[in-house]
Design goal:
24% helix, four-stranded antiparallel β-sheet, SH3 type barrels, 12 strands, alpha+beta
C-alpha cells in the first residue's frame, strides 16, 4: 500500500461502525487465535467492539483404508476474520494476541474489508461448501481391491465413478471375461 491513503480508505478508517478485518496468523493456529481473542475480549470488556470471528472451514469426507474420514479444511489458511470496530485500544489488543502476525492492510491504521470484498469471501465459502461432498482417493483407470462380496480381494480397474450415489463400477476379469461390478466407495481400496 502506498504512503497516501485514498478518500475511500480514509472514510473506512474514520468509520466507527462494525467492519470485517483480516488477520494474518501463524499457520495452524487459526482456531487458537480465535480462542485467545475471545478470552481477551471477555477480560477487557470489549464485547461490543469485537463481535464476531470467522475461520472459514468446510467438511470433507475422505476414504482412508476403506473407512470414511471427515476432515475440516480451512479455506483461507493463515487468516482469521474479525468483525470489529477499530480504535487504538482494539488495534493494540488484536496485534498483541499470540500467533497474530499482522492485521492485513495495516501499515499505519487497519483498513477493513469493503462490502464487496466481504461478499466475495462469503460467495467463495458457499461455493466451496457445495463442492465439499466426498473426496475419493481414486479415479477412473485406477486398480483397486474389493473388500466385500463374491469378489473380495480381487483386483479390478475402475471404469466409472458415481459421486452422487457413492459407488464405482469396477471391471473385474473372471474366466477370461471382463465383468463390471458396482461397489460402494467404502468397500474398495487402492491396490498397492
Amino acid at each position: 500500500m502506498s504512503d497516501s491513503i485514498s478518500k475511500e480508505q480514509k472514510k473506512q478508517i474514520e468509520d466507527s461502525s462494525l467492519k470485517w478485518y483480516v488477520l494474518s496468523v501463524v499457520s495452524g493456529q487459526e482456531h487458537m487465535v480465535v480462542e485467545n481473542l475471545r478470552e481477551r475480549v471477555k477480560k477487557q470488556w470489549l464485547a461490543e467492539e469485537i463481535v464476531d470471528f470467522m475461520v472459514p472451514t468446510i467438511s470433507q469426507t475422505h476414504m482412508k483404508k476403506g473407512a470414511k474420514v471427515i476432515k475440516e479444511k480451512k479455506l483461507f489458511p493463515w487468516y482469521v476474520f474479525i468483525k470489529s470496530q477499530m480504535n487504538d485500544k482494539i488495534w493494540y489488543v488484536v496485534r498483541n494476541t499470540p500467533w497474530v502476525r499482522i492485521i492485513v492492510w495495516a501499515e499505519t491504521h487497519p483498513i477493513p474489508l469493503t462490502e464487496k470484498e466481504y461478499e466475495n469471501i462469503v460467495t467463495q465459502i458457499e461455493a466451496a461448501s457445495e463442492r465439499s461432498q466426498l473426496v475419493v482417493p481414486f479415479k477412473a483407470g485406477d486398480v483397486v481391491l474389493m473388500k466385500w462380496g463374491d469378489f473380495k480381494w480381487m483386483p479390478g480397474s475402475i471404469r466409472e465413478i458415481n459421486m452422487e450415489k457413492g459407488f464405482a463400477v469396477i471391471n473385474v476379469e473372471m474366466l477370461g471375461r471382463v465383468t463390471p461390478v458396482m461397489i460402494d466407495f467404502d468397500n474398495i481400496e487402492l491396490a498397492s
